[in-house]
């Protein structure tokens, strides 16, 4: 294991303990998930950046584990294993996470909140941003930059387009990887499949096959070949991506005017009220009101709850193209950054309604939360200046 992983991380200061205590007073029960976690959920559900930075180990029985690279998945797994599963419940935490970082320690502290089962999504989203702002204020940064987005708006747009299902899934997944999204839009406009030539015969044979049987076949072939993981991806994910390539070979060509619509959508930015007006205009111009209205209604309702919590919407920078690089986000996302320093987030989070089902839950469960980067906030003193 990398020598930069250390068990001597400096302990939390009084400010972070006060912060977590305030979350407890707000009704979020404090939890301490296990540091060693099954690796598969992180490999399958996290973004590329997390996968590349994980610390992995294999148990004598062959199971793959990791030092937790974040706390959202561990808290979610513990919630699903508890009597509270399926019910409204909120949790807060403070503890170390582990990611390979070239010039910094691999072990660092994060605090945060995860909220499950609340049906009032707009109000819950607004509460997360409000509590995140309390964290920066507690460390002396009263006016951080506030950047927000909404993955559900992009997903609703793509769902309303006349495209094969495999292409819709691919474009939505690519939302967090903008270079991939641009490449896939190019492929759709031109038509055709750019898979490696040596794969074309296998991909053609798989095209149109029963998805479950084809997935089992590819998984078995990878296992027979002794492949356990490649590039931080599990066997199941490798198989899924291979089958996706087969499905993407289905004849599909994106009209240039549809690409122009997607690019017009992704160019919308400003404060949330301005963006809402532009999005309403786009939905009418493109005759996509049926597809976009539910997500737009939630977006505008959230804006109202943010304003009700005293957040000046003119301070909020919203962009339809903003995502956080995590595959499990499904709706509202946000980052708070220091306007005087780098773009690294001090507090960041969002809505991940699909995660619990992907972790094994049999019922849909709304979920939203955020993480606080303690090492970055600790650069500020209580009086409000950098130390």
Fraction of residues in helix: 40-55%
In DSSP terms (H or I, runs of 4 or more residues), the helix count works out at 16
Report how far apart the termini are: 33 Å
Helix-strand pattern, N to C? Answer: HEEHHEEHEEHEHHHHHEEHHEHHEEEHEH
CATH class of one domain: Alpha Beta
What is the subunit arrangement here?
A: single chain
Q: Would you identify the regions where 5 or more consecutive residues have pLDDT less than 50?
A: 1-9, 194-201
Average pLDDT for all residues: 84
Give the neighbour order of strands across the main sheet. Answer: 1-5-6-14-13-12-7-11-10
Quick one: biggest sheet? 9 strands, mixed
What coarse outline follows from CA principal-axis ratios? globular
How much of the sequence lies in strands comes to: 15-25%
Q: State the CATH architecture of one domain.
A: 2-Layer Sandwich
CATH superfamily of one domain: Bira Bifunctional Protein, Domain 2
The CATH topology name of one domain reads BirA Bifunctional Protein, domain 2
Q: What does this entry look like structurally?
A:
This protein is of the alpha+beta class and 387 residues long. Among the domains are: 1-143 and 360-387, Bira Bifunctional Protein, Domain 2 (BirA Bifunctional Protein, domain 2, 2-Layer Sandwich), CATH 3.30.930; 165-248, no CATH class. Helices cover 44% and strands 17% of the residues. It has 16 helices and 14 strands.
Write the layout of secondary structure elements.
Layout: H1 14-25, E1 29-30, E2 36-38, H2 40-45, H3 48-53, E3 55-58, E4 64-67, H4 72-80, E5 89-98, E6 107-116, H5 121-138, E7 145-150, H6 151-159, H7 165-173, H8 178-190, H9 200-206, H10 211-224, E8 229-230, E9 233-234, H11 235-248, H12 256-266, E10 269-270, H13 272-285, H14 289-308, E11 316-319, E12 332-337, E13 347-351, H15 355-358, E14 367-373, H16 374-377
């Amino acid at each position: 294991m990398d020598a930069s992983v250390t068990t001597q991380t400096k302990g939390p200061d009084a400010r972070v303990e006060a912060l977590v205590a305030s979350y407890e007073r707000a009704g979020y029960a404090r939890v301490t998930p296990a540091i060693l976690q099954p690796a598969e959920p992180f490999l399958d559900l996290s973004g590329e950046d997390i996968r590349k930075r994980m610390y992995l180990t294999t148990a004598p029985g062959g199971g793959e584990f990791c030092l937790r690279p974040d706390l959202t998945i561990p808290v979610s797994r513990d919630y699903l294993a508890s009597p509270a599963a399926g019910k409204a419940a909120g949790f807060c935490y403070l503890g170390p996470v582990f990611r390979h970082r070239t010039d910094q320690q691999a072990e660092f502290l994060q605090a945060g909140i995860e909220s499950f089962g609340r049906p009032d999504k707009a109000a819950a989203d607004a509460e997360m941003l409000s509590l995140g702002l309390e964290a920066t204020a507690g460390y002396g940064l009263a006016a951080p930059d506030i950047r927000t987005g909404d993955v559900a708006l992009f997903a609703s747009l793509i769902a309303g387009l006349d495209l094969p299902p495999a292409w819709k899934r691919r474009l939505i997944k690519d939302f967090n990887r903008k270079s991939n999204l641009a490449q896939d839009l190019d492929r759709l406009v031109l038509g055709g499949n750019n898979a490696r030539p040596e794969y074309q015969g296998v991909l053609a044979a798989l095209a149109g096959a029963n998805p479950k049987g084809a997935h089992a076949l590819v998984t078995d072939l990878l296992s027979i070949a002794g492949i356990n993981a490649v590039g931080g991806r599990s066997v199941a994910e490798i198989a899924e991506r291979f089958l996706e390539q087969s499905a993407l070979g289905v004849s599909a060509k994106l009209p240039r005017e549809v690409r122009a619509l997607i690019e017009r959508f992704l160019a919308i930015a400003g404060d949330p009220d301005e963006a809402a007006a532009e999005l309403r205009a786009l939905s009418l111009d493109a005759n996509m009101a049926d597809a976009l209205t539910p997500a737009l209604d939630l977006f505008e309702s959230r804006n109202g709850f943010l304003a009700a919590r005293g957040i000046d919407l003119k301070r909020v920078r919203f962009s339809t193209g903003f995502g956080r690089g995590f595959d499990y986000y499904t709706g509202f996302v946000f980052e708070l950054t220091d306007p005087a320093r780098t773009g690294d987030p001090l507090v960041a989070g969002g809505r991940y309604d699909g995660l619990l089902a992907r972790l094994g839950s049999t019922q849909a469960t709304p979920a939203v939360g955020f993480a606080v980067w303690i090492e970055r906030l600790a650069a500020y003193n209580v009086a409000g200046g950098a130390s």
